[in-house]
Amino acid sequence: MSRSRAKKKQRQRARAAGTSSRAVPRAAAAPETAPPKTATPKRRPPRDPASAGAAGRPRPSRLEVRDGVPRPDAIWAPFPLTEIGMGVGLVLFLIGFTGAPVLLLAGVGLLVVVVAELCLREHFAGFRSHSILLGMLPVTVVHLGVVGLADVDWRGPLALAVDLALAGALAWWLQRRFRIAQGRARLRSS
Questions:
Q1: What is the torsional sign of CA 21, 22, 23, 24?
Q2: Which run of H or E residues covers position 66?
Q3: Is the pLDDT of residue 68 over 80?
Q4: Rounded CA gap, 77 and 121, in Å?
Q5: Considering the entire predicted model, what is its pTM?
């Protein structure tokens, strides 16, 4: 096959795919010829269980791997304790709106514990950064403890500045720890 004929075939394939191999307007281009109908559509080969991964599990979805780091499993991995805790906390929280403040506080407390556990697990495994949330949580708990239990009037601009400074320092430290954990997790998965 001559070079000019090979280039012409290449241009025809590029036009059929929607791209052009040279900068010629479509109106000025040579008339297109239909590609041969002998080509069959590509079909996906049957799934090979050996390529599925360890223990025959399918490859993880994009939600299970983030930036090359797999989602960490809980200690109670097969049992959905985190999800059950979230469900119970939501139910208690919603029932608490009907006039039961004790159930409302119990729901909030349970949700805080469950979400904090999930965030800590993902953060220190290098999967997803939760620096700001994890930095604000202890500062908020200490602030509520000081105001509620010690009966101290700790409010105003000074209290806000101190709380934000502490939360910012914790978030900065947590972000550094996340970067270290993410680097280690990427090395392990490589």
A1: negative
A2: strand 65-66
A3: no
A4: 12
A5: 0.61
